[in-house]
């Protein structure tokens, strides 16, 4: 009987991370798409850093930053009376940093391709900005939103190095799927590692397939609406 | 717009006010300021009692609270919504009791019934623009802004939509600000003409008055210069496929138009299509011979002379003289001894009058008293 806790934990971590990232990343992506500030490339570069940095580098800084002596970790500790490192909450923060570009970049692209003239039209028709965003902007960027969600979710599931640095390997708290597989391999339990790995492969395939099928439909839809 | 300087003061009344001028004159910027999409540096914008913008008092209503309908050059329909949902999008501003009948009325007037379930992607350019007009109308606007709504359409589609636009201001009792650089549209639609040039108002007034001024020809376009007349339909001459008009008691003939007897039409006569004679010519193919008086001459540097005329009312007619422009050679001016006050006969070829510039104004239209 395999322990399914790492599997559940990974799903939970990815879901919470994605939710946080959509809340933070959407305004950030909108700002990046619309802004004319000269600092835009700087912000874009910072956003893209998690793409290139080794997870160990990222994990190291996060560990320092989130640790009890760190700026964020100290505040968290003072507020909740618990440390941030080696907890689920700490993993969420770390995953958000790690997966940020995977959510922000597709969204930014979608906002840049958005026909902003329809936004002006909605405003002159009396729609408030929130209503315009929900009814006019979001439906037009739904493919970008879907891409961002799938990539953000999948990337969080797949992370390893950062989790190991910041979260360690505490069953039920920070022992996610990838860590559990690593541990099974270390313990030479290839059967357990194989089972978890095959679950991950199958789930990833099933998750990504609709995304790429959508892309085909989207091209057709564009041609019609142009 | 960078450091584009735009200084205008416009007092638009009911009916259609046309902002007319070349591309880049600042027309679109003016309507974008009215809509709240562009912020003026200073000044005030009011519709009736409602202050939309007042730099001195720090008032700047956002676009969604201005109650301004905007028909853009490109229809800007929402691609993910059906025509029906596009039309209804701005109806929230309308009294709920009026929504359903008003929707039916707009759909009927713009002929949109068959399109309601379709997506904008499946519409022709003309259909899209009709939907955009309907959508703006149904947002219950205090003023309807139209920024070159016909410029992206071919001639066929234009003539298909023009009649709808012409009826908007009266049928829906909403003042219309209409931006255009096409003379024909302006002549056909506008009650008041605002001539915009280089970010400034070059002239403002009734279409007939502004188009009949010599000094404005460089802005309206010298080749295209022409006056606007407002005769009444006096009958049709079916055998010759002509329509007979009555202008201040004088008969005029133009290519047949589908307008009722007694209706006022507006027609543009280009200066280059008008010749002058000191005595009424005999045995001529020219059908339209109108007695006029020279008001002003503008010789310029070329061989041409622009002549501003006033058409004299016939016997027993009470109407004010109507302005007309003629272009003659410098030699003719000298030979005929033309000067302000000279009585002449203006000759206009009926075939030179562009059918598309002929637009009915209806019987009881709310033309402003002048």
List keywords for this structure.
heterodimer; A: about 230 residues; mainly alpha; MetI-like fold; about 80% helix; globular; B: about 375 residues; Rossmann fold; OB fold (Dihydrolipoamide Acetyltransferase, E2P); 2 domains; 6-stranded mixed sheet; 5-stranded antiparallel sheet; disordered C terminus
Q: Would you mind describing this structure in some detail?
A:
The complex is a heterodimer of chains A (226) and B (370). The mean pLDDT of chain A is 88. Chain A is globular, with a radius of gyration of 20 Å. In chain A, α1 (5-34) packs parallel to α5 (88-113). With 226 residues, chain A is mainly alpha-helical. Chain A has a single domain (5-225), classed as MetI-like fold (Orthogonal Bundle), CATH 1.10.3720. Chain A has helices at residues 5-34, 40-52, 55-66, 71-80, 88-113, 116-124, 129-140, 142-158, 161-167, 177-186, 190-225. Chain B has helices at residues 27-35, 83-88, 96-109, 125-137, 155-171, 183-189, 207-211, 217-220, 330-336; strands at 16-20, 44-47, 50-54, 59-60, 68-71, 143-147, 176-180, 192-197, 200-206, 226-229, 232-237, 242-247, 250-255, 264-270, 274-277, 288-298, 304-311, 322-329, 343-348, 359-362. In chain B, strands 5-6-7-1-8-9 form a six-stranded mixed β-sheet, sandwiched between helices. In chain B, strands 15-19-16-17-18 form a five-stranded antiparallel β-sheet. In chain B, α4 packs parallel to α5 (155-171). The longest helix of chain B has 17 residues, at 155-171. The two termini of chain B are 37 Å apart. Chain B has nine helices and 20 strands. Chain A binds chain B through residues 115, 117-118, 120-129, 132, 136, 139-140, 224-226, and chain B through 35-37, 62-70, 72, 74, 76-80, 89-90, 92-93, 119-122, 135-136, 139.
